[in-house]
Amino acid sequence: MTKQKIGVLVMSYGTPESMDQIEAYYTHIRRGRPPEPEQLQDLVNRYDAIVGGFFPLRKNTDRQVEEIEKTLNEQGSEYEFVCYQGLKHAKPFIEDGVEKMVGDGITKAIGVVLAPHYSTMSVGSYIKRAKEKAEELDLSINFVKSYHLYPKLIEVLSERVNTALQKFEGVDKNEVKILFSAHSLPEKILEINDPYPEQLMETSKKIAQKTGITNWDFAWQSAGQTAMPWLGPDILDVLNHIHSQENVQHVLICPIGFVSDHLEILYDIDIECQQVARKLGMHLERTESLNTDPRYMETVAEVVIAKLDKD
């Protein structure tokens, strides 16, 4: 019996593949408006600072897509899964992934974003673009919107916290301030009761409950440089605050809003946050990124199959 072929559109933010692609990438983020020279140079400097311009997000995402496909097909279902990549701001764009599916003869598909928490401005925008292209090409596609409380995800994130706490030798874990973090978004999402902040808080609480930690807080990071206000407090301000107001000496950052090593991890935390921590005399560590951890790959595979079985 021939298995039914199911396309899986694995979506993520995207990143340039080389230094000479940064300007085009930044222009796409700015909806076709080229960045000012100083803005472009700042982004170039940030990429150059993370191991000499190595682009880990692209390579990590490629590996994640490969591993998700492998994990899906190891589930032993009646389906044959084929994964396609769709990026928001780089090639292959989301629309390219949908077109490739249809060109390969795929008639039924599931879309999933490499981000566990839903926001209309993030995951919602990915889904909108994929849905519009699928409708244009008459492809049947449904979407996983969020999986922020999936048991295996909570399990692997909790294990990351426990492992990282061991780096604070001789320090009681209750003396280590845990800062859960995620990418900030414009404050205007609050006006529409966007679920993003609440879902992030739910994930944080579940991890705290599973690990038994009580000394924790939440901070936003990597806000865009725009005139509109973004969600806060910013993690750099939080580091200064907890040092001056709470005399915190040990900090563990757990960036639950990110699933891969990339600029917001390797620069915003490993360089910027570390610079602030060193200046304040604080010991700062972060949890290891999920990348291709088997339990994260299983999480994505299982939520895709669950969505398919519901249809």
TrEMBL record:
EC class: lyase
Chief location category: cytoplasm
Top-level taxon: Bacteria
Gene Ontology MF terms in the entry: ferrochelatase activity; metal ion binding
PROSITE patterns the UniProt entry points to: FERROCHELATASE
Family, as annotated: Belongs to the ferrochelatase family.
Entries under PANTHER family matching the protein: FERROCHELATASE, FERROCHELATASE, MITOCHONDRIAL
Name of the protein in question: Coproporphyrin III ferrochelatase
Native organism: Chengkuizengella marina
Name of the encoding gene: cpfC
